[in-house]
Recover the amino acids of this structure.
């Protein structure tokens, strides 16, 4: 069973003669407790082309110390990582193998580096004996196991914040260390340093740098009028970004988001499913909006696969949204309007539907179709199917695409406003909502090319999307309430409360429909600078 720990730490250089200064004077520290010496032996795994290291991910099997086992570290922010641990075993546990699959794909994981560390540990505790941070002096020997045969040694100081500690405390410790002449490590992790200092890559890099220094140490000269003058080297100005450059940058960012969010989705991190689903929609929308830039003969089949993935993600996400909405609605309801075990039935209903969707989603992420999609996206980014317009000026090519999407959205909003109340209007508003998303994503890709007008349009589309989304959520919530009421009736329970909630949802949808004409008038006017409606 894997278990997760949020790790907030800082690493510092420690020379041969540098020792750990007295940290008892750090503000808040009541005492420094010597926890003794630990011998740690860790083998780090990666693909031959170091896909995990490239993403700042580390996977190791470690013995020694009080946390022997398999450790997977995923970056969160600078100096912050999530460490997922699994019990010690000979083979990589399946729970961790899944978390690296979006990076590793079908490649073999190899033993890359072995790190043996003698760790001298100190605990910094407060007046009540509570742990503030763990400080260790690590004497490390690194040995390359594949991709080279080099080895290296160094000593470093590591300060790790206690669970739920205040990150500001690390600043206080660092101030003390700096006064003792100890500076931050240039490497983000032990593995990063080991890779930099061992193997064929390090040797090749050193040779290249030596050659470069030797070359720059000589002044290239030419004779002119009997005197030697330095040779002037003229470098060409970089070409301005094209429309294709802007679109590809957006496409690449969404591909990266899908890959990076994969472990979070598998771990059921809050909002991760929604964020991955949005990345798939952004990609698919950009293919359609910028069909004059990227060949749709190539991107349409990819878009179909992205639609499939978004649908699989939606099973889980839609259930999250419905459960949250119904729970919030119950919290707002007076107790006098409760009849029967409403909360219990809602929990049972949500758990049953979510449990099945979670299992299905993990199976999708483990499946060949999903991995093939990731490989196809990699190929698309590496060799994009650019059309002639891709080389054109961004303001003209991208601006035209955004204006086209906005014009289609405008027609759909007017159609929704004019539609008769009921199913026809519900469907029309849903179609307008989908087009508002596409227009928003097209404008997002245009922000660097079109600057503030595109940023303003993104903001307007987000507002419209929220308004129309609330209407669609009401439609879906009413369907769920009918389902819950049917189940309650079949179990001999009162369906009164579900009827009350249904009526409130009808009112919320009606409020959106009344607000839409005025909201659209404001948005339409504000968008005039970019889409030419003024």
């Amino acid at each position: 069973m894997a278990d997760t720990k949020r790790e907030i730490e800082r690493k510092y250089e420690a020379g041969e003669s540098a020792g750990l200064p007295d940290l008892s004077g750090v503000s808040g520290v009541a005492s420094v407790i010597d926890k003794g010496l630990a011998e740690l032996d860790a083998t780090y795994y990666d693909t031959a082309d170091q896909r995990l290291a490239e993403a700042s991910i580390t996977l190791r099997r470690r013995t020694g110390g009080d946390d022997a086992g398999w450790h997977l570290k995923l970056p969160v922010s600078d100096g912050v990582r999530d460490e997922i641990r699994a019990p010690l075993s000979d083979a990589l546990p399946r729970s961790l193998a899944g978390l690296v699959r979006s990076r590793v794909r079908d490649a073999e994981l190899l033993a890359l580096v072995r790190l043996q560390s003698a760790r001298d540990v100190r605990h910094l505790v407060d007046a009540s004996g509570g742990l503030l941070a763990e400080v260790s002096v690590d004497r490390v020997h690194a040995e390359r196991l594949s991709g080279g045969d080099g080895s290296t040694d160094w000593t470093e100081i590591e300060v790790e914040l206690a669970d739920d500690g205040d990150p500001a405390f690390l600043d206080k410790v660092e101030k003390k260390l700096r006064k003792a002449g100890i500076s931050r490590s240039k490497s983000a992790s032990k593995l990063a340093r080991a890779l930099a200092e061992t193997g064929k890559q390090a040797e090749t890099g050193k040779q290249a740098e030596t050659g470069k220094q030797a070359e720059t140490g000589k002044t290239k000269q030419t004779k002119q009028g009997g005197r030697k003058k330095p040779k002037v080297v003229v470098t060409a100005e970089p070409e301005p970004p094209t429309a294709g450059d802007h679109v590809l940058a957006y496409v690449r960012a969404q591909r990266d988001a899908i890959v990076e969010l994969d472990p979070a989705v598998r771990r059921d991190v809050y909002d991760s499913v929604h964020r991955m689903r949005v990345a798939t929609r952004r990609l698919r929308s950009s293919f359609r909006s910028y069909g004059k830039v990227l060949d749709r003969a190539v991107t349409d089949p990819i878009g179909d696969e992205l639609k499939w993935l978004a649908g699989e993600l939606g099973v889980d996400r839609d259930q999250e949204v419905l459960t949250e909405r119904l729970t919030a609605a119950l919290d707002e309801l007076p107790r006098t309007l409760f009849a029967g075990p409403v909360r219990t039935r809602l929990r049972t209903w949500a758990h049953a539907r979510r449990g099945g969707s979670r299992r299905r989603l993990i199976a999708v992420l483990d499946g060949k179709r999903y991995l093939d999609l990731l490989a196809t996206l990699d190929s698309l980014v590496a060799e994009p199917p650019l059309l002639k317009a891709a080389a054109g000026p961004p303001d003209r090519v991208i601006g035209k695409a955004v204006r086209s999407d906005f014009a289609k959205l405008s027609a759909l909003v007017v159609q929704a406003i004019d539609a008769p109340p009921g199913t026809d209007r519900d469907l029309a508003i849903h179609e307008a909502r989908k087009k508002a998303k596409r227009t928003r994503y097209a404008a997002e890709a245009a922000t660097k090319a079109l600057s503030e007008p595109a940023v303003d349009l993104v903001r307007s589309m987000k507002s419209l999307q929220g308004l129309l989304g609330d209407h669609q959520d009401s439609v879906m919530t009413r369907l769920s309430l009918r389902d819950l009421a049917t189940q309650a009736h079949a179990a001999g329970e009162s369906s009164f409360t579900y009827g009350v909630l249904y009526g409130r949802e009808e009112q919320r949808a009606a409020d959106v429909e009344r607000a839409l004409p005025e909201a659209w008038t404001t948005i339409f006017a504000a968008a005039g600078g970019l889409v030419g409606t003024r």
Confidence is low (pLDDT under 50) at residues 201-226. The longest strand covers residues 31-46. The CA atoms of residues 453 and 530 lie 6 Å apart. The beta strands are 3-13, 31-46, 58-63, 69-77, 80-86, 110-125, 131-144, 151-161, 221-224, 227-230.
